[in-house]
């Protein structure tokens, strides 16, 4: 038995040795080639005044771009910005062992462009929202943070004109907005006002709930401002400016909310602050947190200088973060635990089903063609709703305190996973995979582990901010109709 065990053990280790040797051979063959990650093909069309070449050569090799030597990182990685003239641009990359040719076309500027002109209707028209989550916007631009609300399918709106691919919507006699033509369909019937029959308050163990019984679904908006939330329900008869306005005063930390129609009843649900127990060992007890490893499966995310994938870094940091948060007592849910594809809608749906209070999405950063990857390094974090800004700041402050890393700052952006979840939601860009120095950090497992710990500490800091002040208030929320 001892002899058989030794033979099996020996064969197992021989397999490991052979696998290691083969891996080294394959790695050596890759390392000493000129591997250009971006542009992704020898011919490309790029409509930008600049672009960049990103990739790697063998460690210690020199690299020339159109006969000029460019910097090569100690890992063999490179990232070089280049100018693009209108028309055809030719580039030749030469390493110690290989030459590659690239042609990049920058489209010539056309002269036939005519800006869209606003057309006001003589008679208002009725449209109906045709897809879930359709955004109502403050301006006639289909991007950015100009969203006012997101409507369920079937919502009817009063349109008073159009501009390009957008309809102008009348919310009240003094307030207008915009919605994409592709998000609605025309209705033959005239638009009618809604009526607010009744509203009531109630609470459950986990939520404060406010219900508004209406004669039909009508547009709404909600705005956050410090400790005040203001709900407006538009096109409601028997109200000043055809708008019913409600104010919610918070004496607790806002830990997420949702606002949607159930039939013709508009329901605002505000999550109660969790019952925290002041304990050094489990400071996040009773907190439900979703950790979202960005991308996965066929969705690679950004590709790093050394042809490493963002999705893998995201998963590694997320799994370390899961461990750290669980040690603090949190209930942690992962949108993915391994390399698989998960759609944005499924990530949002999963988070809302878990009724999480906090959502953290982990990513690594890249850049558009117009930016120079040599000039961008470090971490940034994004939120959409004002309620999430304190969490975003707490996390980046923690990363800045504990790591030797550039902190680019907190930003507001309209990312789907932080916009559509009912939790307090933040998206973190840990570092730039197309910057050779940052990419080297991400390749280091100890860096990823340390980064996860810094994020966990930031979440803990956020949860415990102002606990003494808040705990003195017996009544957590005051609700009132102001017009």
Give an overview of the whole structure.
This protein has 483 residues and is of the alpha+beta class. It folds into 4 domains: 41-106, Immunoglobulin-like (Sandwich); 119-187, SH3 type barrels (Roll), CATH 2.30.30.40; 196-275, Immunoglobulin-like (Sandwich); 288-465, Aminopeptidase, CATH 3.40.630. Helices cover 22% and strands 37% of the residues. The protein contains 8 helices and 29 strands. The strands form 7 sheets. It has a 6-stranded mixed sheet with strand order 24-23-25-28-26-27. Strands 2-8-7-4-5 form a 5-stranded mixed sheet, with no helix packed on it. Helix 2 (310-327) crosses helix 7 and helix 4 packs across helix 7 (445-464). The radius of gyration is 27 Å and the shape is flat. It starts with a helix and ends with a strand. Mean pLDDT is 90; it is low at 1-13, 15-31 and 468-474.
Salient structural properties:
483 residues, alpha+beta, Immunoglobulin-like, six-stranded mixed β-sheet, five-stranded mixed β-sheet, 22% helix, flat, disordered N terminus
Helix content: 10-25%
Biggest sheet descriptor: 6 strands, mixed
Morphology call? flat
* SSE class: alpha+beta
Tell me the total number of β-strands: 29
The order of strands across the largest sheet is: 24-23-25-28-26-27
Helical element count?
A: 8
* Name of the top-level CATH class of the largest domain: Alpha Beta
Report how far apart the termini are: 87 Å
Unreliable stretches (pLDDT < 50, length at least 5) are 1-13, 15-31, 468-474
How many structural domains can be distinguished in the coordinates? Answer: 4
Indicate the CATH topology of the largest domain. Aminopeptidase
């Amino acid at each position: 038995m001892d002899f058989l065990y030794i033979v099996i053990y020996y064969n197992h280790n021989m397999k490991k040795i052979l696998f290691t040797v083969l891996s080294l051979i394959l790695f050596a063959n890759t390392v000493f080639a000129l591997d250009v990650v971006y542009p992704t093909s020898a011919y490309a069309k790029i409509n930008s005044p600049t672009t960049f070449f990103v990739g790697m050569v063998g460690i210690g090799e020199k690299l020339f771009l159109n006969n000029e030597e460019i910097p090569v990182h100690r890992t063999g990685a490179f990232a070089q910005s280049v100018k693009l003239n209108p028309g055809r641009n030719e580039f030749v990359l030469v390493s110690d062992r290989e030459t590659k040719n690239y042609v990049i076309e920058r489209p010539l500027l056309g002269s036939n462009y005519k800006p869209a002109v606003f057309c006001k209707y003589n008679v208002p028209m009725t449209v109906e929202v045709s897809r879930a989550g359709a955004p109502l916007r403050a301006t006639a631009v289909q991007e950015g943070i100009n969203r006012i609300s997101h409507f369920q399918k079937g919502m009817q709106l009063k349109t008073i004109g159009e501009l390009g691919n957008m309809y102008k919507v009348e919310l009240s006699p003094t307030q207008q907005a915009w919605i994409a033509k592709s998000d609605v369909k025309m209705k033959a019937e005239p638009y009618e006002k809604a009526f607010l029959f009744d509203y009531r308050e109630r609470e459950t163990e986990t939520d404060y709930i406010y219900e508004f019984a209406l004669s039909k679904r009508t547009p709404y908006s909600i705005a956050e401002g410090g400790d005040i939330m203001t709900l407006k329900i538009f096109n409601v008869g028997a109200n000043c400016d055809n708008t019913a306005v409600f104010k919610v005063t918070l004496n607790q930390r806002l830990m997420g909310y949702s606002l949607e129609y159930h039939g013709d009843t508009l329901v605002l649900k505000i999550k109660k602050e969790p019952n925290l127990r002041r304990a050094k060992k489990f400071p996040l007890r009773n907190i439900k947190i979703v950790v979202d490893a960005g991308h996965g499966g066929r969705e690679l995310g950004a590709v790093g200088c050394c042809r490493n994938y963002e999705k893998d870094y995201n998963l590694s940091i997320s799994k370390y973060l899961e461990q750290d948060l669980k040690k603090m007592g949190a209930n942690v849910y992962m949108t993915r635990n391994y390399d698989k594809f998960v759609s944005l809608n499924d990530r949002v749906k999963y988070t809302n089903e878990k009724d999480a209070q906090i959502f953290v999405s982990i990513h690594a950063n890249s850049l558009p063609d117009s930016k120079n990857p040599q000039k961008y390094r470090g971490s940034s974090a994004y939120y959409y709703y004002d309620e999430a800004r304190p969490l975003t700041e707490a996390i980046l402050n923690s990363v800045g305190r504990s790591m030797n890393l550039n902190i680019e700052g907190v930003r507001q952006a309209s990312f789907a996973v932080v916009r559509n979840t009912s939790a307090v939601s933040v998206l973190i860009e840990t570092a730039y995979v197309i910057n050779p120095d940052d990419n080297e950090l991400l390749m280091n497992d100890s860096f990823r582990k340390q980064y996860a710990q810094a994020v966990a500490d930031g979440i803990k800091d956020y949860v415990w901010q102002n606990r003494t002040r808040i705990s003195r208030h017996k009544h957590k929320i005051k609700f009132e109709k102001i017009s």
